[in-house]
Amino acid sequence: MSNTYPSIRNFFLVVIITILGFGMGAPITWAQDSDQSGLASEGNSDEGSSNSDPYRINEKPDVGKNIGVRSQTGEFIVKDITFTDEENRFVEIGRYFDGKRPVMLSFNYSNCPKLCSVQLENMTSALREVDFKIEEDFQFISVSIDPNEQTSRARKSKQIYTEQYNKPGTEDGWHFLTGKRKNIELLTDICGFEYKYVPAQKLFSHPPVFILISPEGKIVRYIHGLDYNVDTIEKALIEAAEGKIGSPINILSYGLGCFLYDPSSGKYTFQAMALMRIGAIITVVILLITLVPYWFIRRNNQSEVKNHPGIPIPNGTTPSTGNSS
Predict the structure, then answer these.
(1) What is the spatial distance between Cα 280 and Cα 79, in angstroms, rounded to a whole number?
(2) Are residue 88 and residue 184 in the same domain, yes or no?
(3) 115-137 residue pLDDT tens
(4) pLDDT tens digits along 158-199
(5) Which of 24, 38, 256, 305 has its Cα between 20 and 30 A from that of 68?
(6) Same-domain check for residues 161 and 271
(7) DSSP-derived secondary structure for 274-301
C-alpha cells in the first residue's frame, strides 16, 4: 500500500499537467489557425474584391497602373546614350558626368497637362534655397519622355525654369534633352523609371521623382513626390557628390557618415555613432595641441641639461658632473 499512493499521486499529477498543457496550448493553436485563415483570406482578396468593392471605388484607374520607380541604387548610367539638347546639338548623356559634379535628373515632357510643371516648379523653388548652385556645384538634367517633343519646346522649358531660378551664371548647368524612343526607354529602364502612354487621354502617365547621380554616373538617391525639403536636397547632393562639394564641414560629415537616409520618411537622420566619432577626433586634436608643445619643451630642456651640466634642473638640484671629490 505504501507504494500505491505515490503511484496514484504521480498519475494525477500527469493528468493535471496534461490538462493544463492542452488548456494553454489551445489558445495558441487557435491563434495560429486564425492567422492562417487571415492569410488565406488575404490571398483570396483579389478573387473577392468584386464582392467587397462592387462599384470598384478603390480600384486604381488605368492611367495609374504599371507606373512607378524601381530602385536602381548603385547602378551606373550607360554613357553613350544619345540625345539632343535644347540647342539642337547631339550629345551623349555621359558628357554630363564629369567626375567633379553630381547630376540631378528628372523625366518630364513639355506637353504634360500639370504634373511636370508642378514638379519642376516646386524643385526649382527649393533649389533657390539650397546652398549649392547649379553649374557651379551640380548639374540639372530634364529628359523628355515624349519622343515627338521638339527642340524648341525644350529650349522654352529651359528659359522658364532658369528665369524662375534667377541666379545669373547658372544657365550652362541646366540641360533639357529630347531623344528617340529607344534611347529614352533605355535610360528610363536603367534608372528604374516606369511610365506609359495613355492613348485615350493622349498623355504620358509617370511618377514624380528626381534621381541623384554621382559625378561618375552612379545612381545614388531618389527624391520622390512634389514636396521637397531643402535640408534633404542638400544632404542628397553631398551624398551624390561623395563629399566633393560644399564646405569642409559638409565633406567631414559625409566622410564620417553623420547622416543616414531613411526611406520610410524620405529624410536624412543624424547618427549617434557619428557624434561619437566626431568627439573622438576632437579629443585627439586637443591632446595633440596640448601635448606636442610640452614634449618639444621637455626634450629641449633635457638637451640643455646634457650640454650644460651646471644648469639647475627644476627640483633645485644640480646634476652630478661625475666627480665624487
Answers:
(1) 42
(2) yes
(3) 999 999 999 999 999 999 999 99
(4) 999 999 999 999 999 999 999 999 999 999 999 999 999 999
(5) 38
(6) no
(7) HHHHHHHHHHHHHHHHHHHHHHHHHHHH
